[in-house]
Structures are given as C-alpha cells and as structure tokens.
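W.,

You were right to be curious about this one. When I first looked at the sequence I had no strong expectations either way, so I just let the prediction run and decided to look at it fresh. Below is the sequence, 98 residues in total, followed by the output.
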Amino acid sequence: MQQEGELVRLEQVIGKLLESHQALQRRCQELETSLREREQACGELEQQVAQLAGERSQVADRVQNLLSRIDRWQEDNDQPRSAMHDDGGQGTLFALSS
C-alpha cells in the first residue's frame, strides 16, 4: 500500500511539473512574439530616425544657403556709393528727379 501511495504522489508531482513546463513554454512563446514585435518596431523607428536625419540635413543646407544669400545681399548693399549718386545721407525717398 505504501508503494501505491508513493506512485500516486509521484504522478501528482510529475503532473504539476508538466503543467509548469507547459506554462513556461507558453510564456516563452509570448515573450518571443513580443520580442519580434519590438524588434520590428525598433527597425521601423531606426528607419524613421534616418529619414528625419536626412530631412534635417537638407533643411540645414537650405538654411545655410539662405543665410549665405542674405550675407551676399548685405555685402552688395554695403558697397560705398559713387560720388555721382551721393544722396547726402537722405536715401532715395526724397531725391529730386533731374
């Protein structure tokens, strides 16, 4: 009778171990699925970061080009005026036509 009781107990322990093992396998599969989804999301985010970095670089180049054009325009307007066009510091707003 003692052996019968030990066999029943052994069956119960093995049953619990198998249930625990199956639960762990399911959890492992869930985690692997979650990992794959996160890796895919990370890949998409890395692509988005690369795209935004490229756009940022293009915008920076365009801004630099505009600033250079403004600098050239200011340099052109800062050129000393010739004696024939001396406006006495008044500018062209009050210039008389000849």
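Here's what jumped out at me. The chain has a mean pLDDT of 88. And, maybe more interesting for your project: The first helix runs from residue 2 to 77.

Coffee later to discuss?

I.
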